[in-house]
């Protein structure tokens, strides 16, 4: 099972400042604890310095990651606040028929509600879902 880990990186920051990326480690740990055979595709693992890429390489990298999102068995999106890149990944994954599990306090946001398979308000709520076999159907796929 391949899961694409989408989520806020720069968000609405005006410079090269990144949002806290600790959520990526937490989500990967949850997945590996309950789905040991999972393959997690994480943009920050693949391109930790992408914020410093030249524009052409940045665009090429982002478009390649969007293709990864579309090819995944599921997409998990972490959105403590809005993220344009994550919105694009969600949209493209949705168009490709990929189930989308979103962790966000923005539970009334139209884009999140229209395109998410399921929305979790908190990381512990998501962990409970995973620990109770919420993604088991993907393992059997």
Give a structural overview.
The chain is an alpha/beta fold. It has helices at residues 22-34, 43-46, 55-71, 84-95, 110-115, 123-131, 136-140; strands at residues 2-7, 39-41, 74-78, 100-103, 118-120. It has one domain (2-140): Rossmann fold, CATH 3.40.50. It contains seven helices and five strands, in the order βαβααβαβαβαα. The protein has a five-stranded parallel β-sheet with strand order 2-1-3-4-5, with helices on both faces. β4, α5 (110-115) and β5 form a beta-alpha-beta unit. α3 runs parallel beside α4. The longest helix has 17 residues, at 55-71. The N and C termini lie close together (8 Å).
If classified by CATH, what would the architecture be?
3-Layer(aba) Sandwich
Would you state the CATH class? Alpha Beta
Helix run count: 7
Assembly state: single chain
Unreliable segments (pLDDT under 50, ≥5 consecutive)? none
**Tally of DSSP β-strands:** 5
How many whole angstroms does the radius of gyration measure? 14 Å
Distance between the termini: 8 Å
Main beta-sheet annotation: 5 strands, parallel
Helix proportion of residues, in percent? 40-55%
Q: Strand arrangement, largest sheet?
A: 2-1-3-4-5
The general outline is globular
- What is the string of helix and strand elements? EHEHHEHEHEHH
Question: Top keywords for this entry?
Answer:
141 residues; 5 strands; 7 helices; Rossmann fold
Give the structure's gist in a few sentences.
Helix content is 47%, strand content 15%.
């Amino acid at each position: 099972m391949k899961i694409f880990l989408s989520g806020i990186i720069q968000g609405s920051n005006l410079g090269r400042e990144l949002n806290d990326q600790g959520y990526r480690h937490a989500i990967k740990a949850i997945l590996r604890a309950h789905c040991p055979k999972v393959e997690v595709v994480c943009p920050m693992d693949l391109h930790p310095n992408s914020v410093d890429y030249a524009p052409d390489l940045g665009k090429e990298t982002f478009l390649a990651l969007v293709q990864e999102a579309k090819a995944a068995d599921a997409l998990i999106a972490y959105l403590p606040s809005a993220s344009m890149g994550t919105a694009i990944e969600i949209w493209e994954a949705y168009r490709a028929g990929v189930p989308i599990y979103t962790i966000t306090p923005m539970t009334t946001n139209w884009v999140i509600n229209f395109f998410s398979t399921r929305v979790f308000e908190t990381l512990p709520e998501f962990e409970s879902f995973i620990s109770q076999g919420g993604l088991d159907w993907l393992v059997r796929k």
